[in-house]
Structures are given as structure tokens and as C-alpha cells.
Amino acid sequence: MGAPAVPVSIKQLIRMNFANTIILCGGFDKESAEAVIESGLADLTAFGRPFINNPDLVERMANNWELSKDLHMDLFYTADANGYTDYPVHKVSSIVL
What pLDDT was estimated at residue 4? Predict the structure, then answer.
């Protein structure tokens, strides 16, 4: 949401000097999250906004289902549930043979 990216060199410096769990977040998709964990730069990755418009984000990633791009940021921080709890889950197409 407009925050500057943290340089990889800073993340590497933290990794070298911090022995506990490191969680990175911000702009990850499934592939980049897996890559940063496999590289050892992070122990975990976090997802924020993708969970809002993909309430079933874990299932979507596990099944390689497309993620919804329909995110209503104009409804963030409003007084009701619109834009937070009204996004649909993925619908699996049923094929009749």
C-alpha cells in the first residue's frame, strides 16, 4: 500500500544476526513465498490482502486455483462488512460426463 520495499541486503543481514523465526510479508504469491522460504531468508511468509478477497486462500493455493483479483480497497476501514466478509469462495466447476 505504498510502503517502500525492504532491500534484500537488509533481510540477509537480519537473517545472519537473528536466530529466531523470521516472517516476511508483503506482495508474495504462492511461488515467491515458497522461494523465499526455500532460500532460507525467511521461516514463514504472511499474507494480508489476498486473504480478504480470497477467504479460501489456503485451499486455492493448495489446489492451484486462480486467485480473485477483485479487491475493493475503497471499502477498507468502513463501518460495515462490505469489502471484508462478502467475497465468495472458489467455485469448482462440475463436469457431467
Answer: 87
